[in-house]
């Protein structure tokens, strides 16, 4: 087979949508999946047509086993998998029109990159847009063993996308990509998913992938779907402590309810440690929650919601925000931001970010005092 060294338009033009019309919604109805003796809890979930669901979870959460079930490589233990009007549950993999990027690239080692891309659906597809988007042309005449892990991942991604699959499954697509190259490939993938509008399920353990690529985010732990919603809902309002940890919430403060009262339509909690007040929380308690003095709660606060300010600007608390005194114990540069680790007088630690200009203005040394201002709306109560 001739290598694709020039821009090539094959006889059959590229398909820009589903072969059966517009992309279909993916519906998991009472789905239970498993391998060997392990199986998941029952899950009901829907991904709207053309949108991307990112499943976030640690190793062993059941993410890859779910993808293998959606692809038809493993049978469903219970329930249904529907794509648009099709019931995929009993269909073999070759009938499902699914593009699958495996965690390991799974390229044919004895074929050139060009031939790998022309396999299956790629034999009748216009590959030029993918070759350009993923910068694959220089490697077309090479073999997989001649490429780096990141380069092979790009080829595997292209192979999953060729021929307009009706469902795209991506298993840790950036696992072999160098950290320096991940942001660029992440942006490229986001653009491809928007442009092609393929209903997609992507699994990852990286919250950054989930925030930047997901129209919807689901959090999996031990085969249980802890929460599913928009990225804003999951990352700013995690349903429970395990979800908050998986979503990368930097500040999880265990506190004790010292007193509860009402202020207009809001609940007010005095929260502290060992009877010593730390802060007041204002908001609406979850339905059915009754927090008597002595009850244990956790405040979840993302680092980007904590705003460092000079110690001289301290304001203890108002209706909309509070400012805590803190002592700087570590500062490190993370790309365009400084990450500050601070100690609160109560013994808790807080993490925050500062732009370089603010870091210079604060002129802090380790051990120096600063203020940490937080909006009440950004103090998320977990009960």
From TrEMBL:
<dbReference type="Pfam" id="PF00005">
    <property type="entry name" value="ABC_tran"/>
</dbReference>
<keyword id="KW-0813">Transport</keyword>
<protein>
    <submittedName>
        <fullName>ABC transporter related protein</fullName>
    </submittedName>
</protein>
<keyword id="KW-0067">ATP-binding</keyword>
<dbReference type="InterPro" id="IPR050093">
    <property type="entry name" value="ABC_SmlMolc_Importer"/>
</dbReference>
<dbReference type="InterPro" id="IPR027417">
    <property type="entry name" value="P-loop_NTPase"/>
</dbReference>
<dbReference type="InterPro" id="IPR003593">
    <property type="entry name" value="AAA+_ATPase"/>
</dbReference>
<dbReference type="InterPro" id="IPR003439">
    <property type="entry name" value="ABC_transporter-like_ATP-bd"/>
</dbReference>
<feature type="domain" description="ABC transporter">
    <location>
        <begin position="26"/>
        <end position="247"/>
    </location>
</feature>
<dbReference type="GO" id="GO:0005524">
    <property type="term" value="F:ATP binding"/>
</dbReference>
<keyword id="KW-0472">Membrane</keyword>
<dbReference type="InterPro" id="IPR017871">
    <property type="entry name" value="ABC_transporter-like_CS"/>
</dbReference>
<dbReference type="GO" id="GO:0016887">
    <property type="term" value="F:ATP hydrolysis activity"/>
</dbReference>
<dbReference type="InterPro" id="IPR008995">
    <property type="entry name" value="Mo/tungstate-bd_C_term_dom"/>
</dbReference>
<keyword id="KW-1003">Cell membrane</keyword>
<keyword id="KW-0547">Nucleotide-binding</keyword>
């Amino acid at each position: 087979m001739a290598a694709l060294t020039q821009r090539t338009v094959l006889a059959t033009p590229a398909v820009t949508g589903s072969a059966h019309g517009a992309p279909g919604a993916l519906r998991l109805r009472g789905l239970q999946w498993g391998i060997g003796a392990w199986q998941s809890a029952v899950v009901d979930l829907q991904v709207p047509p053309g949108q991307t669901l990112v499943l976030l979870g640690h190793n062993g959460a059941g993410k890859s086993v779910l993808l293998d079930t959606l692809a038809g490589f493993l049978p469903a233990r219970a329930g249904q998998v529907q794509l648009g009007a099709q019931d995929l549950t009993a269909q073999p993999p070759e009938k499902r029109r699914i593009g699958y990027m495996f965690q390991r690239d799974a390229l044919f080692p004895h074929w050139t990159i060009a031939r790998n891309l022309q396999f299956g659906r790629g034999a009748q597809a216009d590959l030029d847009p993918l070759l350009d988007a993923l910068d694959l042309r220089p490697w077309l005449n090479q073999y997989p063993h001649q490429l780096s892990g990141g380069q092979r991942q790009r080829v595997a991604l292209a192979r999953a996308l060729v021929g307009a699959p009706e469902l795209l499954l991506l298993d840790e697509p950036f696992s072999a990509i160098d950290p320096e190259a991940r942001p660029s490939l992440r942006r490229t993938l986001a653009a491809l998913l928007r442009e092609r509008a393929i209903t997609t399920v992507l699994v990852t353990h990286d919250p950054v992938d989930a925030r930047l690529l997901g129209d919807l985010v689901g959090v999996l732990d031990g085969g249980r779907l802890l929460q599913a919603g928009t990225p804003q809902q999951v990352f700013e309002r995690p349903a429970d402590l395990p979800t908050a940890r998986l979503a990368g919430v930097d500040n999880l403060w265990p506190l004790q309810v010292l007193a509860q009262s009402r202020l207009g339509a809001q609940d007010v909690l005095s929260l502290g440690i060992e009877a010593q007040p730390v802060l007041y929380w204002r908001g609406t308690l979850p339905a059915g929650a009754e927090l008597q003095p002595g009850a244990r709660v956790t405040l979840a606060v993302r680092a980007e919601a904590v705003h460092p300010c000079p110690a001289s600007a301290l304001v203890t608390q108002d209706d909309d925000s509070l400012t805590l005194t803190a002592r700087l114990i570590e500062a490190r540069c993370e790309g365009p931001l400084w990450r500050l680790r601070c100690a609160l007088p109560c013994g808790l630690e807080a993490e925050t970010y500062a732009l370089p200009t603010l870091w210079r203005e604060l002129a802090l040394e380790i051990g120096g005092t600063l203020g940490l201002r937080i909006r009440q709306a950004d103090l998320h109560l977990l009960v």
